[in-house]
Amino acid sequence: xxxxxxxxxxxxxxxxxxxxxxxxxVGGRSGTARAAESPFSVPLKVITPLKPARLAGHDFYRLTxxxxxxxxxxxxRTRIRSFNGAMSPLIVARRGRPVVIExxxxxxxxxxxxxxxGHTPESSDGHPKNAVQPGERRVFRYPNEQRAATLWIHDHxxxxxxxxxxxxxxxxxxxxxxxxxxxxxxxxxxxxTLQLRDAKFGADGTLEWDLHDFEGRHTLLVNGSPxxxxxxxxxxxxxRLVNTSNERPFLLQLGDGEEFTHIGTDGGLLPAPVPTRMxxxxxxxxxxxxxxxxxxxxxxxxxxxxxxxxxxxxxxVMRFDVVRTAADPSGVPDALRPVPDLGTSSVERxxxxxxxxxxxxxxxxxxxFDIDRVDIRPRLDATETWKITNxxxxxxxxxxxxxxxxxxxxxxxxxxxxxxxxAGLKDTxxxxxxxxxxxxxxxxxxEGLYMYHCxxxxxxxxxxxxxxxxxx
Length: 472
Known about the structure:
The protein has 3 domains: 22-41 and 183-325, Sandwich (Immunoglobulin-like); 53-177, Immunoglobulin-like; 347-470, Cupredoxins -  blue copper proteins (Immunoglobulin-like, Sandwich), CATH 2.60.40.420. The chain contains 3 helices and 30 strands. A 7-stranded mixed β-sheet has the order 12-11-10-14-19-16-17, with no helix packed on it. Strands 1, 2, 3, 5 and 7 form a 5-stranded mixed β-sheet that branches. With 472 residues, it is mainly β.
């Protein structure tokens, strides 16, 4: 069983896997799901982007965080925490055109809206000190000055965030630009967002919540549907994979190990496409792939499986059914998008991530989060190198680090270059127990108080977060 103590001793790479221990690769069903959760009984919900009010110089949305009753499992109704009453909404934005969101909190808990991966001013970053209290509202301004990327919106209220996200409060935010749109990648209806997460349901369809019971969440949801099927044309699709789980990783395999093309990660497109047969997706991460269903022909069915199933659950994530022909002018070019040169690092920092079994706290440099303490003081436009070490060798716990404001480059893992799937810009890096990674980053444009933290949300809630005050 994968537990908090023995969880996921995987290979060194977190993008395209270099190796996976045989003990974690499961070839078939490892348990029996409830009948209502049998795989491929419901269609995938393809998310339609929300329509903004197009005002002078910006797009405007109103997002109301509130409870809603929706159908997740067939034949039942489930109360979720939602944006505007829906599960997994989608916003599409364009570089150079700002988005303004008025968030109205109709929940009975605080909500601090964070655009994960967003290059945003402090006032709109979703710091816990700026949480919107029940019955209140706040305006968030996203300048959209960064490169095209798949981002997402979630809560950062600290004490409520893990449950809010678990109960459904996660939206995808696609940022496009001229460079990306100029490439012949699949577009329109063939560019599909897949928001992956897990859940635990009671017999009546109720979502059951326990911060520590991550291995008990045996139902996998894709865009809010349990292990759905998706009818596709025999042509190429761009699939944007977003892991909104609290703590679950996915090690994804298509069919019997079919090859697909990895084209992007957290910070947008990779420098070059990477053919692969397996992809690892950790909480908070996004990966983009192109799958050519034209090579299989009408009538073929391909199952996307998670080869990290917990004990007692099915490995199936979803199924693709090739049902029709279609013209396909798309392609994957040999070069996608160069990684920007961040310059030479003038500052080096070290971060040790650990668990304290005596207190139950998860720590960064032996300290739990303190909202009244500033931990580091980076300077704008100064390139830094951060070494991240996971010291949890006793318990085998993986940790990650997500700095707010700007994306980074992974320089190395355990002194070795990162895998090709990590050659682009990232904003979340997972480090296995006893291992280390070095990243290079440079904070630009915005001064103020920002966070860095583990994106295993239970670890974050139990203290694995620090604060940085960025100045000129």
